């Protein structure tokens, strides 16, 4: 039928509304405050959204809007002041610190702006690190670590230390490390913030390839152009989600906002 041709079947990712996919992360009424002395400073002010299996989404917002704070909650690195985060339907509030660390190691692959590699360890040893905390039975991790380093194009650099690698190579080691435990999701906080534009391009292309293999990716960035390389853009401003739309809608709204601001300049 004519309808079938225009249907959305076959699209990899869809925004939260109308998606039939399994939710891998559910964030409900999330608040986070920090304390400066006795003064409570609210940073996240009621965040609600879900991430579905197989999505490639960006969380964008200006510096200081609370993106990294949100990443810390999504990554079980820190606890909410109130509200809930469900990771694969598991309420993280119900877990003690050890259980939380275990869940983190099992379900989440982290990628950071500063790469966060251990300087005295080789590329290979850095990739092996997460496997010490959360091992799954029946997996040959040394073999897997080597395969992942090959996958990111560092077959010849396994015994090199971070100081002997370029920024782009370090980030590729970090990506291999993030993948070693077959995480449910990859959480990347400003992953290209320390890379030149060509290397950033390579990282984004690699993310897309991973996503096409089924890996769920959440990329946090203050860079709107980078966000447009994903499928869904969640905008956060001053601790609240101000929009959550698929990338085509987001691009249109960005263009409209730009044109409106040009109009006001002219008049
Ligand atoms: P973004 O990643 O969007 O730049 P952050 O989440 O890092 O924003 O920070 C949001 C706000 O929270 C900032 O004002 C920052 O100073 C504050 N903040 C972040 N982490 C802490 C902390 N551990 N203690 C106190 N304030 C913090
Ligand atoms: Mg940040």
Automatic annotation (TrEMBL):
SMART domains reported in the protein's UniProt record: AAA (SM00382)
Presence of keyword Cell inner membrane: no
Residues covered by the ABC transporter domain: 25-263
Single GO MF annotation: ATP hydrolysis activity
Region entry Disordered, spans: 1-16
Keyword set, alphabetical order: ATP-binding, Hydrolase, Nucleotide-binding, Transport
A GO cellular component annotation in the UniProt record: membrane protein complex
Biased composition (Polar residues): 1-6
SUPFAM superfamilies in UniProt: P-loop containing nucleoside triphosphate hydrolases
Keyword Membrane: no
EC annotation from Swiss-Prot or TrEMBL: 3.6.3.-
Protein name: ABC transporter ATP-binding protein YknY
Organism, as annotated: Methanolapillus ohkumae
Protein encoded by which gene: yknY
């Amino acid at each position: 039928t004519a309808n079938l041709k225009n249907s959305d079947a076959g699209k990899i990712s869809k925004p939260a509304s109308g998606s039939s996919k399994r939710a891998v992360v559910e964030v409900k009424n999330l608040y986070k405050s920090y304390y400066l002395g006795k003064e409570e400073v609210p940073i996240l002010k009621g965040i609600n959204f879900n991430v579905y299996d197989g999505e490639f989404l960006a969380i964008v917002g200006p510096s200081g809007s609370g993106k990294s704070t949100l990443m810390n909650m999504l990554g079980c690195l820190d606890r909410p002041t109130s509200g809930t985060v469900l990771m694969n339907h598991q309420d993280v509030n119900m877990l003690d610190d050890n259980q939380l660390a275990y869940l983190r190691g099992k379900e989440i692959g982290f990628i950071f702006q500063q790469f966060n590699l251990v300087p005295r360890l080789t590329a290979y040893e850095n990739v092996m690190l997460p496997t010490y905390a959360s091992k799954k039975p029946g997996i040959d991790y040394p073999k897997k670590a080597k395969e992942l380093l090959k996958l990111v194009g560092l077959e010849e650099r396994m015994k090199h230390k971070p100081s002997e690698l370029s920024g782009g190579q370090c980030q590729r080691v970090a990506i291999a490390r993030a993948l070693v435990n077959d995480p449910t999701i990859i959480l990347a906080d400003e992953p290209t913030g320390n890379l030149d534009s060509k290397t950033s391009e390579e990282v984004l292309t690699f993310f897309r390839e991973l996503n096409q293999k089924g890996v769920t990716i959440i990329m946090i960035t203050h860079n709107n152009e980078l966000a447009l390389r994903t499928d869904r853009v969640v905008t956060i401003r001053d601790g609240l989600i101000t929009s959550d739309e698929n990338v085509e809608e987001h691009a249109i709204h960005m263009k409209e906002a730009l044109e409106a601001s040009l109009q006001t300049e002219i008049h």
